[in-house]
Design goal:
The chain has 213 residues and is mainly α. The chain has helices at 5-20, 24-36, 38-61, 63-69, 71-93, 112-124, 127-136, 147-183, 188-207. It has one domain.
């Protein structure tokens, strides 16, 4: 299921480099953490990881081939993902600000399960992730072994690496959040920042072409 050690180490190195490069998923996770705290950031990491794993499974069973040849299928999924991101951004922008005079104003936190769900849907409705797996993983696969099992195994390794790097972003953002909060009179900045990020990601997703994490 996994390549020989030298090739596996090359795959891990390439995956680590790609995972550390900020992309839409990283922006989403950081925005959630800054707006609603570490718990929401961690829930977002898990949701995004599960969505990316589902995309790896999709690549393994041939969805990538479908997206590659059917512009309609790709466009439908892409626009669904973009619309969901814009919806999340608008919802955050409409969250009311903390009252003036609050000793420790905070952004109203959403239930963790909802944050997890949002992260999963955002990652799942990104067809470029499926195409990414279909283009990247075969470079490290053995032509004489099962492509399905290899895709699942390598996809799982990549998602695990990305999950670890995303945790680093969450911890860093959670350390910076209190300082940013003290610099602002109201906690609404967090909602506005996250909302703007989500809307921007939705626009970029809608404008994107075939195939980033």
């Amino acid at each position: 299921m996994l390549p020989d050690t030298p090739l596996l180490l090359a795959f891990i190195g390439a995956s680590l480099t790609l995972a550390l490069t900020p992309g839409p998923a990283v922006v989403y996770i950081i925005a959630r953490t800054l707006a609603q705290g570490r718990a929401s950031g961690l829930a977002s990491v898990l949701g995004v990881a599960l969505g990316n794993l589902a995309n790896a499974v999709g690549a393994a069973i041939g969805l990538a081939a479908l997206f590659a040849v059917s512009s309609t299928a790709f466009t439908v999924v892409k626009w669904a993902g973009a619309a969901y991101l814009v919806y999340l951004g608008i919802r955050l922008w409409r969250t009311p600000a903390a009252a003036v005079g609050d000793a420790a104003p905070r952004v109203p936190a959403q239930p963790v399960h909802r944050v997890f769900r949002d992260g999963f849907v955002v990652a799942l409705l990104n067809p470029k992730t499926t195409l990414f797996f279909a283009a990247f993983l075969p470079q490290f696969m053995d032509a004489h072994a099962s492509p399905l099992l290899q895709t699942l195994a390598l996809g799982g390794v990549f998602v695990a690496i990305a999950c670890c790097t995303d945790l680093i972003y969450v911890l860093t953002a959670s350390l910076l959040a209190p300082r940013l909060a003290r610099a602002s009179r109201h906690a609404v900045w967090g909602n506005r920042l996250a909302g703007t990020s989500f809307i921007g990601l939705g626009v970029l997703t809608a404008m994107g072409t075939r195939p980033t994490r």
